Amino acid sequence: MAKKYNYQDNFDMLILRHDYMSRVKDPDPRWVKEFELIVVQTSWIMFNKHRPKFSKIGYEIEDVINITNCYMLAYMSLYSMRRNEESLEKVRQSYKKRFGFFPDAEYLEKKEKINMISFLRQRLQHASVICSRKLRNITVDNEKIAAYAHTDESVPISEHLMYQDGEGYGYRKVSKDELKEIKKTAKANKTKNLVDEDGFPIVEIDIPNEGIKLNDYKDLFISSKNDAYHTDPEKQLMMSLENAKMESYRNQFNDMDVNDRKNQLKQFIQEYKGNKNYKTELKEAKKILGNM
């Protein structure tokens, strides 16, 4: 019987998706370089989306990229059209059914990358869920972790003791749903005193977590302005290719000598002068030329 892994004792095995990796045979090391752009961009998107979960576990972006590379190797080994003839034939037949002829190599390559992006997102989304389960035992600063109601049998005790064994000292554990309703009632009655339906007072346990302060995580909850998680995989791929192309052009321009750069800018300004579609680019080109 196969060993059953859990997030408490085998967290890393779950994060790395042992169920996939155990089936991977002879992965091609060249894939890491070939799909570097997709892996890095997808890692950043999902890291920004789930930054609090990943960071509290101790993962930085480099760790998420390494994990995503493992997912990429699993995809290419198990589901890629390059290795899985069944997947290839399914895509070919689907395309022929729509258009009446089989797809060319360019379409298949593009389809492969789109499928990979979707796969990586799904796996990283699942990784964030595993991190959430691991984080259930982590509290930050003064986090409310329990609520108890007094009863006729309650005896005076400290909050620490109440949390450890409240029911043993005559207190009743209050569920989250019940506490939510009690707070709604208190708000409607414009009072801060929380009592249950029998009139007994409610105690919310608020125990400091020594060694971990909320300030330690002050930068974790800043949302990225470039969160593209919900971008269509095909659009994301096109964005990645366009960004890579622009970076290549930028590097070529920077490698030119000053005179060649000036001539390039003058030619661009002359050619697109008055073109509203290039208003921002023309403004930037003039600014760069003026500073040279």
What's the gist of this structure?
The protein has helices at 11-15, 18-21, 30-34, 36-49, 51-57, 61-78, 85-99, 105-134, 159-165, 176-188, 233-255, 258-272, 279-290; strands at 144-149, 172-173, 202-206.
Helix content: 55-70%
Biggest β-sheet description? 3 strands, antiparallel
Helix/strand-derived category reads: mainly alpha
Based on CA inertia axes, which overall geometry fits?
extended
Distance between the termini: 71 Å
Radius of gyration: 29 Å
Number of domains: 3
Q: Beta-strand level of the residues, as a percent range? A: under 5%
Describe what this molecule looks like in 3D.
With 292 residues, this protein is mainly alpha-helical. It has 3 domains: 127 residues, no CATH class; 64 residues, no CATH class; 35 residues, no CATH class. It is 58% helix and 4% strand. It has 13 helices and 3 strands, in the order H-H-H-H-H-H-H-H-E-H-E-H-E-H-H-H. Strands 2-1-3 form a 3-stranded antiparallel sheet, with helices on one face. Helix 4 packs across helix 6 and helix 12 runs antiparallel to helix 13. The chain is extended and about 85 Å long. About 6% of the residues have low confidence.
